[in-house]
Amino acid sequence: MKFSVIFEAQLANPDPESEHQVIRDCVEQAVLAEEMGFDRVWAVEHHALKWYAHMSAPEIFLTWVAARTSRIRVGHGVVCMPFRFNHPVRVAERAAMLDLLSGGRLDLGAGRGGTRQETSLCGVDPERTQAEVEEALRIIGRTWQQDELEWHGELLDIDPHPVLPRPVQRPHPPLFLACSKQQTLARAAELGVGALVMGFAGPDEVASMKRFYDSCVAGRDGTHLVSTEVNDHFSALCPTIVLDDRERARAVGIRGQRFFAQAIAHWYGGGGVPDDAVADETDSETEVKRMRSAAEQVVAHLNEARIPVRPTTTAVYNPEHAYGNAADAIAYVERLRAAGVDEVMCLVQMGTVPQEVCMETIRQWGRHVIPHFSKDGTEHVAAASQGAAR
Asked: For the purposes of burial, counting CB atoms within 10 Å of the CB of 156, is it exposed (0-12), middle (13-18) or buried (19 or more)?
């Protein structure tokens, strides 16, 4: 399995000073992730989603991280691909430039950026997002297959042009798609791109999604592939806080996840703003009760507004993840391994989690969790030891 860290740049206190600090904190965490033996960092792209994600220019963030590191892969998880967010040729140009400067370390995911808050900011037609994401992937998949790109599709016409520079990874960096339901999993398999799944419902749901994805991969006929380069990589999110103090790790992690859930619910139509920013030091049982109460409030709000309540709506309120000590995290990842995931994407940076806790969690994973799952733990142990000495 591969191990990565994903960054939303969540912010409980969205004043400019705190915002500047959280971006710098994310860079510091990413640099430490390389030292501790992680394989990849991912950065989301969202726009105008105060609290939930202040990562509006991941291409800049990932370039900065690439310049500060030498080995770890840098991934767009994901680029908002509807054309008014990002023209597909501009995505290709930026991706190739970063792939070049990083020495061939880029991974490129696609997503819709489908909240009304985001689409209204950039004039994106919500009804076209799915079609535009797929056409963008097809354009990127073809861009460097010949000396010049020529494209005449259903949505865009591009006369022959060279697209420069060319990436180090040929024909292009690996492609992924954000997948939150079976429909998008099936489409990712048909398109021949990797799946990035949320996984908040837990390992059993992840296992079900992996089985479905694999069945779609096995059943595809190849007519819908976006590129000659097929990527069947399956990555699943793993919310985690790991400390020697097991009880504190669970309390801080569940509080952070509650902030995450409330922030995303706010922008997806689920109610008010997140709770007060201060992460009060309370016990995990109290945090679980608060999590359940928040979920009930969201469901009540959606029912009142006559918005359908889907399983994914409340999955983010499941508190049973890799929160605790290293042994707890190992046990949770064992379940993900049994589910068949290719990559565990650690969600550490949640809006109320202090920086020192994020950093210690990354160290704990590097020292204890990752070596447990490596075929030859010496590389990760050496990296962890080097990082601890710096």
From this structure: middle
The whole-angstrom separation of Cα 298 and Cα 271 is 6
pLDDT tens digit string along 296-332? 888 888 787 777 777 667 889 999 999 999 999 999 9
Alpha carbon distance, N-terminus to C-terminus of the chain: 27
Name the nearest CA neighbour of 174 among 321, 75, 322, 280. Answer: 75
Q: How far is residue 349's CA from residue 44's CA, in Å, rounded to a whole number?
A: 12
What is the per-residue DSSP string for 252-282? Answer: HHHHHHHHHHHHHHHHTTS-SPPSPS-----
Ramachandran area for residue 325 (φ above 0: left; ψ -120 to 50: alpha; else beta): beta
Q: Are 42 and 5 a contacting pair, CB within 8 Å?
A: yes
The amino acid that residue 13 corresponds to is N
CA distance 44 to 65: 14
